[in-house]
Amino acid sequence: MADRRNLKKTAVKRILQEVKEMQENPSDDFMSLPLEDNIFEWQFAIRGPSDTEFEGGIYHGRIQLPAEYPFQPPSFMLLTPNGRFETQTKICLSISNHHPEQWRPSWSVRTALVALIAFMPTDPGGALGSLDYPKEERRALAIKSHEAAPRFGASERQMLMNEIHQYMLSKAPSVPRLPHQVPQEQSINREGETSQVNHLIAGAIAEGEERAVEPEDNDRIVEDVRGLRLNANAGPLRIGFNVQLRTRRRRRISSNTYEQLNRRDARRLRVFYDRILTFVAVVLIMAIAVLLLKKLLKAG
């Protein structure tokens, strides 16, 4: 019994320190305060992380600190609909009471809120209390979250939530629209941990197309486009290149000779461009091979 009282005394002292720190060093990304009649229960609000479908959203929640805090982790519950976590359900995170073995006493409420923001755009992976709404629905919920704090609990709690909501409104930017998802063909990505090289060079795709645009009068503009796309990977290293060769030429041709274009010249021009692209492809493949060999030598 005495040990339990000592632990609670330690928890109270630690919580009061964190409350003071939260008030003296406020953040634009979150705000959290305990209830006046129970310092082990906190209300919080976090701002959705930038460059995600949650950006600009204000998400309220509840934190329950155990009597053994900070030696045992808190539990978290979100109250604002968000499309990532269920509301009024304890969520499963590495910083929550679902994984006490991963908790560190040096962590704090502030640390946990920063981690919670980082978890928002991650893959749910079927974790307890997780949701996987489409980005459009999450963005709509982010916009709606600005309207008011959710209704939860007694009037004292609601007043605290409203106060936190007004603070977050003064800090949160407007919710931007979802950017168009444009695939990036030219990228260098490194994913995962180091593993054995499974493939040295896999996949080489060459694509080309030609199109012609004809103005009205006697001017003829011919535009040739040749595209080359190369992909290579070695274990966790993936490299991609996208090269385009585009030429435009204007020819002055009388209207009655459009159907008598010199096809032989056109074929020669295509052969010329194909040779250029073949040369470029060879150079790129050699460059990729050299890069991968360097990575392999360093890994060895």
Automatic annotation (TrEMBL):
<keyword id="KW-0472">Membrane</keyword>
<dbReference type="InterPro" id="IPR050113">
    <property type="entry name" value="Ub_conjugating_enzyme"/>
</dbReference>
<keyword id="KW-1133">Transmembrane helix</keyword>
<feature type="domain" description="UBC core">
    <location>
        <begin position="10"/>
        <end position="159"/>
    </location>
</feature>
<feature type="transmembrane region" description="Helical">
    <location>
        <begin position="272"/>
        <end position="293"/>
    </location>
</feature>
<dbReference type="InterPro" id="IPR000608">
    <property type="entry name" value="UBC"/>
</dbReference>
<dbReference type="InterPro" id="IPR016135">
    <property type="entry name" value="UBQ-conjugating_enzyme/RWD"/>
</dbReference>
<dbReference type="Pfam" id="PF00179">
    <property type="entry name" value="UQ_con"/>
</dbReference>
<protein>
    <recommendedName>
        <fullName>UBC core domain-containing protein</fullName>
    </recommendedName>
</protein>
<keyword id="KW-0812">Transmembrane</keyword>
